[in-house]
Specification:
7% strand; 203 residues
Amino acid sequence: MYLKLFSINTFKKVSLERVMSFENSSVPLSLFTDDGMMSTTKKSDVMGKLEDFVSNDQILHKISSVESILFDGMAVIQMLLPTQSPLKLTYFDMASSFWKHIVDKSDGSPCIHVVFDNYFIEGSIKSQTRERRGEQLTPSNAPSHLQPNMTVTDWKKCLTSCSSKREITHLYTKHIALHAMDIVKPGKVVIVSGGFTNTQSDT
């Protein structure tokens, strides 16, 4: 690439320092590794960088009203552990607990957004990290074909399987679609993103 730049430079007469300032790579090295894999980082580090752009007088310590609230659906799933004996708890119970938590925490807001991660995007940072670790998308001992009336046998294994987590997000999204009248108060709007596959529709 540099040879081409040098040959062009014989006509353009751009300074050599300017020519050499460009990276000799097909991808920006600040975002990708030498082999083309996306670089990873800690989310907490990114948050710290964003906070550096905000001065103290721009921080809102108290908000009188909120028009909408955004939830990381998978973060809530990871946080809400089973509260009953596994032999008695069903995936319907887990879905009900999930949406009760969402609705209770968004009291006073007319609009609720719930976003689920997509764990099957080829080339994503998540898939690349699992590939480097040698993890399987669907471990042989992970629960599969989840149904609302099924008993939760091993919640930890569900959360370590990409396939099981995808089924959980589908099940939870379908749960709110079928039982919205009983869960959501009148006047509230619930928008779910990433709960279904591309061939299905979110609520």
